[in-house]
Design brief:
CATH architecture of chain B: Orthogonal Bundle
Helix content of chain A: 40-55%
CATH topology of chain B: MetI-like fold
Radius of gyration of chain B: 23 Å
Shape of chain A: elongated
Largest sheet of chain A: 9 strands, antiparallel
CATH superfamily of the largest domain in chain A: MetI-like
Oligomer: heterodimer
CATH class of chain B: Mainly Alpha
Number of domains of chain B: 1
Strand content of chain A: 15-25%
Largest sheet of chain B: none
Distance between the termini of chain B: 21 Å
Number of helices of chain A: 14
Number of strands of chain A: 14
Helix content of chain B: over 70%
Order of helices and strands of chain B: HHHHHHHHHHHHH
Number of helices of chain B: 13
Shape of chain B: globular
Radius of gyration of chain A: 36 Å
């Protein structure tokens, strides 16, 4: 675009500075986590465990094992470990000891903790001295080897007699490394048959002699559809999305009828309108959990519905509405609770739409003899289409997230919904990735339905035009 | 899912016209009244029964069938039992802290943004508005899980501040849109007039605009407070020890008595009922703006 010479468009900085805090905040606490969520659903950052050719982090990688692969343990070795010792590590202690060697010369070298009985400790528990243990096995070498470094593969620099008193100069913590190979079953299922070393913190060693193991977690990430598949295969997934859709199909139409009715009452501008408005919009600000509990108080077997029915003599025994055998009653209660709670917002949007319709239009129709019903059907409803579209999108997105009401009325077991499964995967099963897959699934459903409404309602308008 | 005050959308609708039409009582009018009363009862009767359950003896809560006529005996014993239960005091305090933090954060951040959107025409303004609307349409469920993971990574997990940050992200879009509409309702000419009479731009903002927008911004802040007070999904995901009241209630649902739940539900409802009472007249100039 050619700007006129001499006219410089000045871009003012002020508005950008004013919106900057909001933008930064939303970037940090909305956009960034959103992207992270997407990644969590399709990326496993612990997918494979590299096998190294030597028991050493700098060793060369000879293969990789997927999480969960069953292993045979071929050998083990300790490696000096200086980091913080956590629960998932298998460690052993080595002592640097000094004493008199088997040949009478002073000996100074490393021996595993198992070879020394500690007899003297400092106040803080640090071992200071002890004696060499006797080897019990028949025919065992009576001497204990001292190594140059704390490792069984190091050079033996001295030998020392059993029961000899020694001073403990230093303590080293070793992490065990295991030489492993995938077991035959795992190889048959496609795991690599490479054999190599892995540190203890990534595997779980099992079996009486520690002869078997399983890959606990890996260190190399990879993109995977595993979590998404796990979500689809989950036995609660089918019921969850079906119930979500059933609830939506039951709630939305009823809600729109009721909301339109409310809006027409408000729009009639009666004397009591401001009171009606307050009452109708009262549930709008209410917690969904509280409303769930409210309807629980009505439907529970010692609740108000049973009390009223029995009070008027309709029933003799309380009816059980909310139990594992009464799935449809639970759904009915959820529908009523959602209808009670979330209709007001639809009403507000529809009333806003009604306000935008000029009185003259309606009066003209009245003059030409249109009945009230005809005015509603042929003037108000068509003109309300944009408002209804907005309300539909909003309500559908919220319907995919219905959660607390379902828990309060059904406990979350008999009747489950997508949001509840997300919660269960995250909290009950500690499966963050699958929970993320659920979250992304809900997001995609929301986007798809918003897109659908925009298209569906627009094409109708175009047809009418 | 959350908790409403569900964030409604933004059209520029005229203020709600509450002036009655002058008309004689007719059958149509009486029908409308009847419909209004029936709908009001549908809203009120469950509330009435629920509140009477929250304010009665625990024996009455357990009893069956309940004598609902004429009245359920009034007593504060259920309420006292609830307030003395484990964790409830802390839960209430946590809820208040989180809601107040959310209120402060989102008002501080959203006020300048709302002012910018209503007062300046700048390249990117529509994009900003659209972005804000998109944020509002995103599901809370989707945001909670990755935020929990991030907070865990940065050692912010299970802190009230982290929950307030999350609630702020949720409330921000609506706050910006409401505050923008509040500023838009104060004509810029008023500010100019102040300057004509010799005030500096800052003075005329301080003495003319601020008093006019304060009630609207207060309403938006209270809305934020209620949103945070009600929010249960993120609160349950993001906190463990420092539970807010709704997270505590949700967690206790399966093992607590009916009396405990009813009293807890009552506490959750109180702020929103008060809030709706104060903003009922502004409902449409506030939220009418938010729907297109």
């Amino acid at each position: 675009m050619a700007a006129k010479p001499g006219v410089r468009r000045r871009i003012r900085l002020t508005p950008y500075l004013l919106i900057l805090p909001t933008l930064l905040f939303l970037a940090a606490f909305f956009a960034y986590p959103m992207v992270q969520g997407l990644i969590l659903a399709v990326y496993d950052d612990e997918a494979t465990l590299p096998l190294l050719d030597s028991p050493d982090l700098s060793g060369d990688k000879v293969g990789g094992l997927a999480q969960g692969v069953q292993l045979d343990v071929l050998g083990q070795q300790g490696n000096r470990f200086d980091g913080e010792v956590t629960n998932d590590l298998l460690t052993e202690q080595w002592f640097r000891i000094t004493g008199t060697g088997s040949e009478g010369a002073p000996a100074d070298g490393w021996a595993p903790e198992t070879r020394v009985r500690v007899r003297d400790e400092a106040a803080d528990g640090t071992p200071r001295g002890g004696t060499i243990r006797t080897k019990l096995a028949a025919g065992a070498d009576p001497l204990t080897d001292l190594y140059e470094t704390p490792s069984e593969s190091a050079e033996i620099i001295a030998r020392i007699e059993a029961r000899e008193a020694v001073a403990i100069e230093d303590v080293a913590t070793l992490e065990l490394w295991f030489e492993v190979v995938a077991n035959d079953d795992a190889i048959a299922e496609g795991a690599t048959d490479a054999q190599g070393w892995v540190p203890s913190r990534f595997i779980q060693v099992m079996g009486e002699e520690g002869e078997r193991a399983r890959v606990d977690r890996g260190t190399d990430g990879e993109f995977t559809s595993r979590f998404v598949e796990k979500m689809f295969d989950d036995r609660k997934f089918g019921p969850a999305w079906q119930t979500t859709l059933i609830l939506m199909a039951l709630i939305l139409p009823l809600q729109f009828v009721l909301a339109t009715l409310m809006a027409l009452v408000i729009h009639a501008r009666l004397k009591a309108t401001s009171w009606f408005l307050y009452l109708f919009s009262l549930p709008m600000g209410m917690s969904d959990l509280a409303v769930g509990i409210l309807f629980f108080s009505m439907f529970t077997s010692s609740g108000m519905i049973n009390s009223v029915l029995e009070g008027f003599g309709f029933i003799d025994d309380p009816k059980v509405f909310l139990s594992a055998d009464t799935r449809w009653w639970i759904i009915a209660a959820i529908v009523l609770a959602e209808l009670w709670r979330a209709t007001s917002i639809v009403m507000v949007i529809i009333v806003s739409g009604l306000q935008a319709i000029p009185d003259e239009t309606l009066e003209a129709a009245e003059l030409f003899g249109a009945s009230y019903w005809q005015r509603v059907r042929h003037i108000m409803l068509p003109l309300l289409r944009p408002s209804i579209q907005v309300a539909l999108i909003l309500r559908t997105i919220l319907a995919f997230q219905v959660f607390a009401v379902v828990i309060a009325l059904g406990g979350g077991e008999v009747v489950t919904v997508l949001a509840n499964e997300t919660y269960r995967q995250y909290f009950g099963l500690r499966n963050t990735n699958v929970a993320s897959a659920y979250a992304i699934f809900i997001l995609l459903l929301s986007l798809a339905s918003a897109f659908f409404y925009l298209r569906a309602l627009r094409s109708q308008q175009e047809l009418n035009a | 899912m959350t908790a409403s005050p569900t964030t409604p959308p933004i059209p520029t609708a005229p203020d709600l016209n509450l002036t009655e039409r002058k008309a004689k009582p007719t059958w149509g009018r009486m029908g409308t009244y009847a419909a209004g009363i029936v709908i009001s009862l549908w809203i009120l009767i469950p509330l009435f029964f629920f509140f009477s359950m929250a304010f009665t003896t625990q024996e009455t809560v357990r009893s069956y069938p309940k004598n609902f006529l004429p009245f359920i005996p009034f007593s504060t014993s259920t309420m006292e039992f609830f307030l003395r239960s484990d964790g409830v005091g802390e839960g209430l305090i946590n809820s208040v802290i989180v809601a107040v933090l959310t209120l402060i954060l989102s008002t501080l951040l959203a006020t300048p943004a709302g002012y910018a959107v209503s007062r300046y025409l700048f390249p990117g303004r529509d994009l900003f508005r659209l972005g804000i609307l998109a944020v509002r349409a995103f599901p809370i469920v989707v945001l909670s899980i990755p935020l929990a993971v991030l907070f865990l990574r940065y050692n912010l997990f299970d802190s009230l501040l982290s929950l307030a940050l999350m609630h702020t992200a949720l409330a921000m879009p609506t706050s910006v849109l409401i505050i923008a509409s509040v500023f838009a309702s104060v004509p810029y000419e008023l500010e100019e007039a102040g300057q004509v009479f010799g005030a500096t731009p800052l003075q005329s903002f301080r003495h003319i605009v601020v008093p006019l927008v304060l009630p609207g911004i207060a309403a938006s802040s209270v809305f934020t407070f209620v949103l945070s007070w009600n929010e249960v999904f993120a609160a349950s995901i993001l906190t463990l020890e420092n539970r807010t009241l709704p997270a505590l209630l949700l967690n206790q649902l399966s093992e607590s008595s009916d009396a405990y739940q009813f009293a807890g539900g009552f506490f959750l409802m109180v702020p929103s009922i008060i809030f709706m009472f104060f903003i009922r007249k502004h409902l449409f100039n506030m939220w009418g703006q938010v729907s297109k």
